[in-house]
Amino acid sequence: MMPISNPVITTVAPVPPFAQGLVRDLRVRWALEEASVAYDTELLEHPNIKTDEYRQRQPFGQVPVYRDAAVTLFESGAIVLYIAEQTGTLLPADAGARARAIGWMFAALNSVEPYVQQIATVDVFAADEEWAKLRRPGVVAEIEAKLGEVAAALGDKEYLEGEFTAGDLLMSTVLRIPRHTEILSGFPTLEAYKARCEARPAFERALDAHMAAFD
């Protein structure tokens, strides 16, 4: 492990109200807060994340980008993993538990988020399209199936691996995506799990800083 020096998060502002609290720089802020690492932010307007210059740092023209004295990174999951590994936080010391926690990071972003994100497509980005209205029941059913599997894995534990890890950080941010719906209310243990994650002081500090960018 090596200390992180002079971290900067590049993100976008302003964003529409429906996206505030969901932009993925929140994940990076949260990880740094859990590690008690101070950071700076660079706020760009949306057109500036689509320039050739910016794409040298983020090939897909998205946010966030993270940089410190040693590295420049894109993709929120990769950044959270880097912070966890560099600071010795958010990952268990035991090798097996550590590997499982990393597995939950991948699960949150690969097995759950692509399904959950569809609700934003049909409800927000394509809300006026007839195909979206027809597709919505299927999207909800797919999300509910995934959430049922996460709930079964969580069981009666406080966190996915017993202690709070980077896997929980990412999974709980994914569970925030359908906040404009009642989908999560059908899974009381996941609602309580998300609330437990969001009650962490580090999350509260990260969310306050994230939302301050839109004031």
Please sum up the structure shown:
This protein has 215 residues and is an alpha+beta fold. It has helices spanning 25-34, 52-55, 76-87, 95-125, 130-154, 166-175, 188-198, 201-212, and strands at 8-12, 40-44, 65-67, 72-74.
Write structural notes for this entry.
The protein has 215 residues and is an alpha+beta fold. 53% of the residues lie in helices and 7% in strands. It contains 8 helices and 4 strands. A 4-stranded mixed β-sheet has the order 2-1-3-4, with helices on one face. The longest helix is centred in the middle third of the chain and has 31 residues. The chain is globular, with a radius of gyration of 17 Å.
**Roughly how many Å apart are the termini?**
36 Å
What radius of gyration results from the CA coordinates? 17 Å
Approximately how much helix is present in the residues?
A: 40-55%
| SSE run | EHEHEEHHHHHH
Low-confidence stretches: none
**Mean pLDDT metric:** 97
How would you write the strand order of the largest sheet?
2-1-3-4
Number of helices: 8
Shape field:
globular
List keywords for this structure.
single chain; 215 residues; alpha+beta; four-stranded mixed beta sheet; 53% helix; 7% strand; globular
Topology:
Blueprint: E1 8-12, H1 25-34, E2 40-44, H2 52-55, E3 65-67, E4 72-74, H3 76-87, H4 95-125, H5 130-154, H6 166-175, H7 188-198, H8 201-212
Parallel strand pairs: 1-2
Antiparallel strand pairs: 1-3, 3-4
Helix pairs in contact: 1-3, 1-6, 1-8, 4-5, 4-6, 6-7
